[in-house]
């Protein structure tokens, strides 16, 4: 390559490897006097991802408490609610007693016909009782599905109103309380809630989604609708962690819009000392390129124009499905300005 007077040659491949090995970026080596400036758009986008992860961890707290709830604003119950297992239906108790009696007589050597006569049961019923390995198998096979779920309807109603709508998760929860049926019965029962038929509970207002709450937190208070601002205010009163999250986000927004990069160190320290893990991870990543981030929050420079041109070039390249030559791409770039 011919050397052009007035221009400085770039580092060779060997020099590049040496610089990278020493941890020195090629950009710094080529222009040591240049100041690196972080892109504010990507800073805000990364902060939004951390906020969404934090809100998602508080999903169960997004629903409004039912009227008359003992929970006071700004207070969260530390101790989880203790749910007592519901009493078994009479038919369940009877089936368990019949299973135990049939197995006891069978072990004594009595025939199935004799057991049926003694217990007053049909021979087919005796056969099912004797062949069943446990009483739970008899209960699951002989009861109506709705009857199996009935003792747990109150629990399902409450969890549904709290925003838990996943049938598999609710099935696992009531299974731990002694529910003897299968997941299909729970799905069929919850179908009433989704369609609003039958004995669906009074759901009240639908809890906001994680993305809605994230949007409220990331939006300037003056740009929020009155309804959304009121919902966010009540949510912050119920959940102190989401209240602190909102305050951290608004402080960062004030830094970014007011060019107060000198406050960055204090902001990172406050977030790292908080218990909001996703936001603390975002803050730690800012320290890795602290100077560039501080410049991005202090200087008027922005890489937005560069990012826009890069996106335009990528769009033109994708429109040609990767088959365009460099000359054709050059002409398209010049003609689309």
What does this structure look like?
This protein is mostly helical. Among the domains are: 90-195, no CATH class; 210-290, no CATH class. Helix content is 62%, strand content 0%. The protein has helices at residues 13-21, 26-30, 40-57, 90-107, 112-119, 123-131, 135-142, 145-149, 153-161, 167-176, 183-195, 210-218, 226-238, 240-258, 264-273, 277-288, 290-296, 304-319, 326-335. Helix 4 (90-107) packs across helix 7 (135-142), helix 13 (226-238) crosses helix 14 (240-258) and helix 15 (264-273) packs antiparallel against helix 16. It is elongated.
- Percent of sequence in beta strands: under 5%
* Quantity of strands, as a count: 0
Number of helices: 19
* Structural class by SSE content: mainly alpha
Q: Order of helices and strands, N to C?
A: HHHHHHHHHHHHHHHHHHH
- Described by the principal axes of the CA atoms, the overall outline is elongated
Alpha carbon gyration radius: 33 Å
Biggest β-sheet, characterized?
A: none
Low-confidence stretches: 1-26, 69-83
Helical content stands at 55-70%
**C-alpha end-to-end distance:** 31 Å
Q: Kindly state the mean pLDDT as a whole number?
A: 77
């Amino acid at each position: 390559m011919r050397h052009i007077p007035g221009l400085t040659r770039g580092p060779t491949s060997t020099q590049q490897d040496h610089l990278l090995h020493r941890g020195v970026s090629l950009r710094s080596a080529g222009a040591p006097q240049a100041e690196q400036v972080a892109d504010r758009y990507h800073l805000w986008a990364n902060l939004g991802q951390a906020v969404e992860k934090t809100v998602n961890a508080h999903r169960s707290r997004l629903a409004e408490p039912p009227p008359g709830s003992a929970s006071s604003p700004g207070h969260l119950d530390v101790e989880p609610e203790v749910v007592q297992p519901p009493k078994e239906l009479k038919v369940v108790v009877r089936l368990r007693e019949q299973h135990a009696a049939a197995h006891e007589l069978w072990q004594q050597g009595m025939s199935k016909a004799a057991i049926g006569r003694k217990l007053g049961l049909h021979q087919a019923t005796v056969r099912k009782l004797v062949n069943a390995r446990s009483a739970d198998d008899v209960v699951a096979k002989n009861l109506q599905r709705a009857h199996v779920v009935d003792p747990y309807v109150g629990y399902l109603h409450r969890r549904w109103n709290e925003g838990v709508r996943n049938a598999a998760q609710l099935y696992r929860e009531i299974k731990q309380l002694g529910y003897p049926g299968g997941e299909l019965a729970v799905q069929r029962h919850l179908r009433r809630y989704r369609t609003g038929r039958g004995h669906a509970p009074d759901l009240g207002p639908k809890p906001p989604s994680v993305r809605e709450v994230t949007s409220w937190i990331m939006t300037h208070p003056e740009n929020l609708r009155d309804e959304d601002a009121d919902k966010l205010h009540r949510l912050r009163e119920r959940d102190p962690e989401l209240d602190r999250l909102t305050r951290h986000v608004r402080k960062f927004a004030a830094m970014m819009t007011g060019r107060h990069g000198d406050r960055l160190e204090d902001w990172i320290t406050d977030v790292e000392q908080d218990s909001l893990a996703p936001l603390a991870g975002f803050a730690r990543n800012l320290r890795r390129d602290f100077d560039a981030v501080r410049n991005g929050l202090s200087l008027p420079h922005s890489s937005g124009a560069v990012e826009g041109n890069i996106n335009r070039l990528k769009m033109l390249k994708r429109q040609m499905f990767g088959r365009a030559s460099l000359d054709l791409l050059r002409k398209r770039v010049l003609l689309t300005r």
